């Protein structure tokens, strides 16, 4: 065996040139030393022991956690009354490697050049401030918080003056037919001083990590459902294409000009197509929550309907956590599942079920953030207590037993899907996957699964108990979204010494590849076979007017 001659370190496949990184080659060992490390230096580090032998390369992932970056851009202000206004802001581009737990709203009054803390709000991008003085002049700025501290402040908002004759002199808006939410928040006492130029790093996050989600105010950027889409938006590029239409990145020309959004153009040849889209937009208009995709406007064109929604650049959650520069731990899973439950709890509080919760519909807000968004409300339904709802659609592997059996659904049908997502995220395995759809449906109806695979060896008992509380055959026995948020597992904090082990993602990568293959191959799966198999077990038949197409929707 020849002697080792080289010790070559690299970062994300590139030679390390940072001035704060040094290497020491000592007898029998090599050391890589990083001093005053920056968040951008988190990622995959590799060492090649022998230049002549590529197989001697070893790798490890380093994650650097820090206070978050401030929200992007300056906040906007909309005047509500002579003594009240709403402050809105954008998400933070980077969360510091740990979920953002809340935001601090700071205010400057009458040009005094003294900033005071007026409120702390969790899980919202807007806040109502209703204790102001008439004829007062105000500016606002925002800081983001996580368990490691507080960000620098954003640039200050434009100056606004509250008076009797300028109630609408806040942010320029083009109002749409959107429902009005009642913004609520809680937080720090009014009037806490903030020293001039104070960075806020290392501050106490205020215990906001486990605070309940707050209902957010309507977004300040609103566009009319009428008018010309091309007049109000500039199309930048195509970012996605599906069976029903195309998604574009667009920039607003009116309202808050320059705001980046996404426009989903849906083909609507038949009236039935339009009715399907209008049902989806009606559902989205009734939902206002930071974890749910926001709808800003709709435009009806001769052969298509355009839905303008917020732009999400982070990609699918599962693809982010298997990236080379991401080290997945059980604590990360807690952060992600908690946010899913927060968004779903908001939907369920309005008696709305999503019915298509799956990995492809959980997106990351940005490429470097732990913030997630639930998307695609095309199958969502509003439940009515006086009229039981039955459906025969969903996605194989993620649908609940009652859907397969054509039994009345409830908000608990979504909770089953969350249990499956959590199982897959922690292990990379699909709990009910069979050789074909019929086998899969059979496994689901029997609620047969286990934690025997070695992938669960390092998963905590709390995580397994959480999943077991969701994957119950009887709907009434499953945990609700609210109960999930109060569970011991989702209450884990970043400082808790639980769930710190790295989760291997090789099986999760295979799961993602299989899902993509299914979508490009036999993507639309018939449920007629299952309907025929279960027809002998029930007396009722499908009501003609409901017209379920016996399809499992796969996109």
Automatic annotation (TrEMBL):
<feature type="domain" description="Fibronectin type-III">
    <location>
        <begin position="71"/>
        <end position="165"/>
    </location>
</feature>
<feature type="binding site">
    <location>
        <position position="265"/>
    </location>
    <ligand>
        <name>ATP</name>
    </ligand>
</feature>
<dbReference type="InterPro" id="IPR036116">
    <property type="entry name" value="FN3_sf"/>
</dbReference>
<dbReference type="GO" id="GO:0035556">
    <property type="term" value="P:intracellular signal transduction"/>
</dbReference>
<dbReference type="GO" id="GO:0030154">
    <property type="term" value="P:cell differentiation"/>
</dbReference>
<keyword id="KW-0067">ATP-binding</keyword>
<dbReference type="InterPro" id="IPR011009">
    <property type="entry name" value="Kinase-like_dom_sf"/>
</dbReference>
<dbReference type="Pfam" id="PF00069">
    <property type="entry name" value="Pkinase"/>
</dbReference>
<keyword id="KW-0547">Nucleotide-binding</keyword>
<keyword id="KW-0723">Serine/threonine-protein kinase</keyword>
<dbReference type="InterPro" id="IPR017441">
    <property type="entry name" value="Protein_kinase_ATP_BS"/>
</dbReference>
<feature type="compositionally biased region" description="Polar residues">
    <location>
        <begin position="169"/>
        <end position="189"/>
    </location>
</feature>
<keyword id="KW-0808">Transferase</keyword>
<dbReference type="InterPro" id="IPR008271">
    <property type="entry name" value="Ser/Thr_kinase_AS"/>
</dbReference>
<dbReference type="GO" id="GO:0005524">
    <property type="term" value="F:ATP binding"/>
</dbReference>
<keyword id="KW-0418">Kinase</keyword>
<dbReference type="Pfam" id="PF00041">
    <property type="entry name" value="fn3"/>
</dbReference>
<dbReference type="GO" id="GO:0005634">
    <property type="term" value="C:nucleus"/>
</dbReference>
<protein>
    <recommendedName>
        <fullName>Myosin light chain kinase, smooth muscle</fullName>
    </recommendedName>
</protein>
<feature type="region of interest" description="Disordered">
    <location>
        <begin position="169"/>
        <end position="223"/>
    </location>
</feature>
<dbReference type="GO" id="GO:0004674">
    <property type="term" value="F:protein serine/threonine kinase activity"/>
</dbReference>
<dbReference type="InterPro" id="IPR013783">
    <property type="entry name" value="Ig-like_fold"/>
</dbReference>
<feature type="domain" description="Protein kinase">
    <location>
        <begin position="233"/>
        <end position="490"/>
    </location>
</feature>
<dbReference type="GO" id="GO:0043065">
    <property type="term" value="P:positive regulation of apoptotic process"/>
</dbReference>
<dbReference type="InterPro" id="IPR003961">
    <property type="entry name" value="FN3_dom"/>
</dbReference>
<dbReference type="InterPro" id="IPR000719">
    <property type="entry name" value="Prot_kinase_dom"/>
</dbReference>
């Amino acid at each position: 065996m020849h002697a080792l001659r080289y010790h070559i370190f690299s970062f994300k496949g590139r030679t390390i040139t940072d001035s704060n990184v040094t290497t020491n080659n000592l007898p029998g060992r090599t050391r890589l030393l990083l001093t005053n490390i920056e968040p951008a230096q988190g990622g995959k580090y590799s060492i090649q022991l022998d230049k002549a032998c590529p197989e001697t390369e070893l790798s490890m992932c380093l994650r650097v956690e820090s206070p978050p970056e401030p929200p992007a851009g300056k906040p906007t202000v909309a005047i509500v009354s002579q003594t009240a206004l709403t402050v809105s802001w954008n998400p933070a581009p980077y969360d510091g490697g740990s979920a953002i737990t809340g935001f601090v709203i700071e205010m400057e009054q009458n040009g005094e050049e003294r900033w005071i803390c007026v409120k702390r709000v969790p899980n919202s991008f807007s806040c109502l401030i209703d204790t102001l003085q008439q004829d007062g002049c105000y500016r606002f700025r925002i800081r983001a918080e996580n368990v490691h501290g507080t960000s620098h402040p954003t640039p200050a908002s434009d100056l606004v003056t509250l008076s009797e004759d300028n109630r609408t002199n806040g942010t320029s808006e083009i109002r749409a037919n959107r429902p009005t939410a009642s913004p609520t928040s809680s937080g720090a006492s009014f009037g806490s001083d903030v020293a001039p130029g104070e960075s806020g790093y290392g501050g106490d996050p205020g215990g906001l990590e486990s605070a309940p989600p707050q209902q957010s105010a309507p977004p300040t950027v609103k566009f009319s459902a009428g008018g010309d889409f091309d007049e109000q938006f500039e199309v930048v590029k195509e970012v996605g294409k599906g069976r029903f239409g195309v998604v574009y990145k667009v920039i607003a020309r009116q309202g808050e000009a320059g705001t980046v959004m996404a426009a989903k153009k849906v083909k609507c040849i038949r009236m039935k197509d339009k009715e399907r889209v209008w049902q989806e937009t009606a559902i989205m208009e009734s939902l206002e929550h930071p974890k749910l995709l926001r709808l800003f406007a709709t435009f009806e064109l001769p052969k298509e309907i355009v839905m303008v929604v917020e732009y999400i650049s982070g990609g699918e959650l599962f693809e982010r956590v298997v990236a080379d520069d991401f080290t997945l731990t059980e604590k990360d899973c807690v952060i992600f599942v908690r946010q899913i439950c927060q968004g779903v709890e908001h939907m369920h509080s309005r008696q709305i079920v999503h019915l298509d919760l799956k990995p492809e519909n959980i997106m990351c807000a940005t490429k470097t953030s732990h913030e997630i968004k639930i998307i695609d409300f095309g199958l969502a339904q509003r439940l009515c207590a006086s009229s039981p709802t039955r459906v025969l659609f969903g996605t194989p592997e993620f649908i609940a037993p009652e859907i397969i059996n054509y039994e009345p659904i409830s908000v608990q049908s979504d909770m089953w899907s969350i249990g499956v997502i959590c199982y897959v995220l922690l292990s990379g395995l699909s709990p009910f996957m069979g050789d074909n759809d019929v086998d899969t449906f059979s496994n689901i109806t029997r609620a047969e699964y286990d934690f025997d695979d070695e992938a669960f060896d390092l998963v905590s008992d709390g995580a397994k108990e959480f999943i077991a509380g969701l994957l119950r055959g009887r709907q009434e026995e499953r945990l609700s979204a609210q109960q999930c948020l109060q569970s011991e597992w989702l209450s884990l904090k970043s400082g808790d010494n639980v769930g710190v082990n790295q989760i291997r993602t090789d099986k999760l990568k295979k799961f993602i590849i299989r899902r993509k293959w299914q979508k490009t191959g036999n993507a639309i799966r018939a449920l007629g076979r299952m309907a025929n198999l279960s027809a002998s077990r029930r007396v009722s038949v499908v009501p003609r007017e409901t017209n379920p197409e016996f399809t499992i929707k796969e996109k």
